[in-house]
Prior knowledge:
The structure is a homodimer of 390-residue chains.
Chain A (H helix, E strand, L loop, with lengths): L10 H7 L10 E4 L6 E7 L6 E7 L2 E2 L3 E5 L4 H15 L7 E5 L4 E4 L6 E2 H6 L8 H15 L7 H10 L3 H11 L17 H9 L1 H16 L3 E2 L9 E6 L2 E6 L7 E2 L1 H22 L8 H16 L10 H28 L5 H4 L4 H17 L7 H10 L2
Antiparallel strand pairs in A: 1-2, 2-3, 3-7, 4-5, 6-7, 8-10, 9-12, 10-11
Amino acid sequence: MGYRILETADIPAYLRERGHWDGSDDIGVREVSDGNLNRVFVASDSAGTRTLAVKQALPWVRVAGPSWPLSPDRSDAEARAYEQLARVAPGTIPAIHGYDPENHALVMEDLSDLRVLRTALNEGAAYGPDTSRRIGELVAQLSFATSDFGLDSAGRKALIAASANPELCKITEDVVLSEPYTEHEHNHWLPELDDLAAEFRADTRLRTEVADLRHTFMTGAQALLHGDLHTGSIMVGEREGAPVVRVFDPEFSFVGPIGFDLGLYWANALVSAERARALGTASDHADQLRVSWEAFENEFRRLWPTRVDTFFDDAYLDRFLRRVWTESLGFAGTELVRRIIGFAHLTDLTTLPNPAPASRRALLLGRELILHRTELTNARAVRSLAESLV
Amino acid sequence: MGYRILETADIPAYLRERGHWDGSDDIGVREVSDGNLNRVFVASDSAGTRTLAVKQALPWVRVAGPSWPLSPDRSDAEARAYEQLARVAPGTIPAIHGYDPENHALVMEDLSDLRVLRTALNEGAAYGPDTSRRIGELVAQLSFATSDFGLDSAGRKALIAASANPELCKITEDVVLSEPYTEHEHNHWLPELDDLAAEFRADTRLRTEVADLRHTFMTGAQALLHGDLHTGSIMVGEREGAPVVRVFDPEFSFVGPIGFDLGLYWANALVSAERARALGTASDHADQLRVSWEAFENEFRRLWPTRVDTFFDDAYLDRFLRRVWTESLGFAGTELVRRIIGFAHLTDLTTLPNPAPASRRALLLGRELILHRTELTNARAVRSLAESLV
C-alpha cells in the first residue's frame, strides 16, 4: 500500500480497516488540525458517545505546506514517547489505541472535550492546583524512568539509539537555540523592540551562554524528553467533576537534558503571567514555576530509592537536581527570547491590546535567566527578578 | 557458516578465503595475544617481507575464559572506530585490510616490529618528543570530527545510534567508575595501602565527585572516543629512521566525554612518572600531561575554523576546552585510583622492587585530581601537586 495522506472522507474506512470501529455507518468525521505540523481528525457517532481521534504526520510542515518538507518519521518518535509515557504516567496522556507506522498515523483518545491550556489561560482561566503539579510529576516520572537512574545501562543505550530524532532536534537547535541571536529571515519582532533585538544580536556574553545551552541540548543525553512541553501541548478540563490534565504532541521527543522540558514549561508559564499582569488580572500564573519545580523535585526524590544504580547516592541526587534546576532556567530563558524575537510567537502576548510592554519584560527576563541561571537558586529569586523588571 | 573461533592452524586458509593472501604455501602463523579480551595472530612469509595480523574477538574475556562471557559484537565497535580514525588520523593507527563481522575478525597491519609503549617505558625508554604530541593530536582529530563541531546534526545522531557499545561501557562504569569506591570482590591492593583503601570507601565527598564523573561518562555524548587509551593501547618504534606511533584496540569506543580519552592517557603517563621517580631514573615522563594537552588544544583550535556550525563562537571554544580539561583531570583521577585499589593493576607499579610508596603517591594524586579538578587550571599546577606528595 505505502503511505497515503488521509482526508476527512477516508477516516471511516481507515478506522474500520484498522479494527478501531465496527461496521456501523454511524460515524461522522471532522478535521480539527491545530498544531503547526500535523493533521488531526475526530470521528464520532451521532450520539457522541463513541469518539476517536486520528493524528497523521504529513511529509511537510502543515502550516507551511509542501515547500517546507519534513519527514513524517517524526510520528515514530511520537509513538515511542507515548509508549514510555504510558508506562509511567498513563493518567496524564491520551489513551493510545494504535499506531500505524506505514501511514504515520496514531489512533487515540479524543480530547476535544478538553481545552488547550494556553487557550484557557488566554481566556482568563487559572492554572488551579493540579496542572503544574501534574506537569512537574510527569516530567519527573518520564525522566527518572528513562535516565541512568531508572533504566539499566544496556536499556539506556538502546533507548538513546532508538530515540534519535534528528530532523526535529535540528528545528529546535536552529529556531530556539541560535536564530534569535543572529540575523535570520525567520526572526521578527514588534518595532518597539528593535533596540533589544539589536542588543541581543550584539551581546557576545549572551551568545556564549546560549551556545553552552545549545551544546547541552545536543550532547546531554540524560533522559527521554517530551521535547516541546509548552502550554499548547497540554489539555485541561474536567471529567465527571474531577480535573483532567493531558499532555500530548510529543513528536519532538528525544534523549536530552531534563531541564529542556521544565524550561519550556516555565517560559510559557512566565509569559502567561506577563499577560495577566498586562491585563491587570488577578491570577495564579506567577506561582507556576515554583509549583511545577516542587512537584518535579518531590516526585524525583520519591522515585530515587527505586533507582537501579545505587552508586549514585543522595549527595549526588542533590547535585544532579541543582544542575537540572540551573539548566531549566537557562532553557526557559532561551524559550522566552525566541518567542518574542524569533520565528514563532505566542498568542498570550500577540493578542494583548498593547503587546509591547509585556513582550519587552519577557524578553529582558529571558536574558536574565540565561545570563544569571547559576545565581538564581530558587523560585523566589526568579519571581523577585520577574517582578523587578521595568 | 556462522561464527567460528579461529585457531593458529586455521589462519592460512582463512586469509586465503578472505582474499588477503595468495595461494602460496609460504605462510607461518604465531599467536601473539596480549590484551585481556581478544586473540591476535601474526601471519608472515619465511622472508618476513609479507606480514598480516588477524585479531578475533572471542565470546568471552580471553584472560578469564568462558566463565566471563562477553559479546564478540565489540569487534563491530572496534571496526567502526578504526573507520573514523582512518579518516582523520590514518598515520596514527594500523592499516586495516578488512573486517569480517560474521567472525568478529579484523585483518590488519602487523605491528610486531613495534613495542607497546608501556613495555618500552617500563624498560626505561623515554616518551620522546613525538608520542604524546601524536596522541594529543589524534584525540583532537577524532573528537573534533565526530563532535557537533565537525559533523552536522543528523550525521551526529546517526553516529551516536550506531556507536552504542553497552557491554564495554558497562565494564568501564563498573570497574573504573564505581567498584574501587565500594566493597567489591574485584578490588585488591597492597597491604600497605589498607588505610587508604578504607579511607576511599568511606569518603562521601570523593564518592559524590566520582558519581558526577560517572554520570558524565554515561550521558555526555560529546564525540567518538577510543575508550581505552592507556599506554598499553599504543605502539611505538621506528621505521626507516622515523618515529612511529600507532594507537590500537579501540573496542571500547563509543560517543562520550572527550576528557575520558585524555584522562586515561594522563593517568597512565603519571603512573609511568611515578615508576621513574621510584627507580630514581631521569625521565621525561612527568611532562607528558602538558605535552599531550598542548597538542590536543593546538590541534582542536587549528580545526575550529572548519567547524560546520558557526553559532559556536571562539568564546564558546574557550569554555568548552576548559570543560574538557577539567573533566580530563577528573577521569585521570579515577583511572589512577582504579589501577591501584581496583581490579586491573599496572605493571609500571607492580614490577617495582618496592611498589608501595609509588602506589600510595599515585593513589593520593588520583584523589586530589578528582576532588580538586576545577581548581587545577593548568599542567604546571598538576605537576606541582604531583611533586608535593609525600
